[in-house]
Amino acid sequence: MIARSQAACDALSDEDDGLKRDVLAHAGNRWSLGIVHALGVSGTLRHAELARRLEGITQRMLTRSLRHLQRDGLIVRRDHGEVPPRVDYTLTPLGRGLLVGMMPLWTWIIDNAATFQAARTRFDRGASDSSDVLDAHNGPDPDDRAG
Q1: Tell me: the pLDDT tens digits for 50-90?
Q2: Contact, 99 vs 122, CB < 8 A?
Q3: In the sheet where 75-79 sits, what is the strand order?
Q4: Residue 77: φ, ψ to 5°
Q5: Minimal CB count within 10 Å: which of 3, 48, 106, 135?
Q6: Cα–chain-centroid distance for residue 41?
Q7: What are the φ and ψ backbone dihedral angles of 42, each rounded to 5 degrees?
Q8: Cβ–Cβ < 8 Å for 53, 66
Q9: Percentage of residues in the chain with pLDDT exceeding 90?
Q10: Is 35 exposed, middle or buried (0-12, 13-18, 19+ CB in 10 A)?
Q11: 35, 66 Cβ separation under 8 angstroms
């Protein structure tokens, strides 16, 4: 798995590195993933419908996230040219690929939520030594046996 991860990183040239960071920064953020999810589940949505589905998002952040996603080809914006204005958004095949690609990560996070919470609790209590995390994940250290 580590070799595969390294190979994927090595496959990106230096000139692509900026693109990779940009796409990860905005396509992987909370609001962009929320937009991709909402469009993936519901299909085409209007701007106001997206705002209602993403509790807590500001108008500015929604517009900014939509523009980033559109620029990278993850969504398509359709302006119907009507008054009052009617604009809607749809996932592209690339956007559907992002949604499908994120599913294993989301599943992994859900499956490990209790472990994350236990690690945070240990850390917040001051047990931030990495060996504490390894011991908790791998079971008791055989060298710590009494006797």
Answers
A1: 999 999 999 999 999 999 999 999 999 999 998 988 899 99
A2: no
A3: 45-46, 87-91, 75-79
A4: -100, 130
A5: 3
A6: 16
A7: -105, -10
A8: no
A9: 58
A10: buried
A11: yes
Element containing residue 76 per DSSP (H, E) = strand 75-79
State both tokens at 103. Answer: 């599913």
The torsion defined by the Cα of 42, 45, 28 and 66, in degrees rounded to 10, comes to 170
Nearest one of 73, 78, 68 to 31, comparing CA atoms: 68
Q: Residue 84 is encoded by which pair of tokens?
A: 């009052």
| Tokens describing residue 79 | 């302006």
Beta bridge partners of 91: 75
- Residues 74, 91: Cα–Cα separation, whole Å: 6
pTM above 0.85, yes or no: no
**Contacts for 99 with CB less than 8 Å, ≥ 6 apart:** 36, 37, 40, 91
Report yes or no: 25 and 61 within 8 Å, Cβ to Cβ. no
Strand, helix or coil for residue 78 = strand
Distance CA 29, CA 75 (A): 15
Element (H, E) at 45: strand 45-46
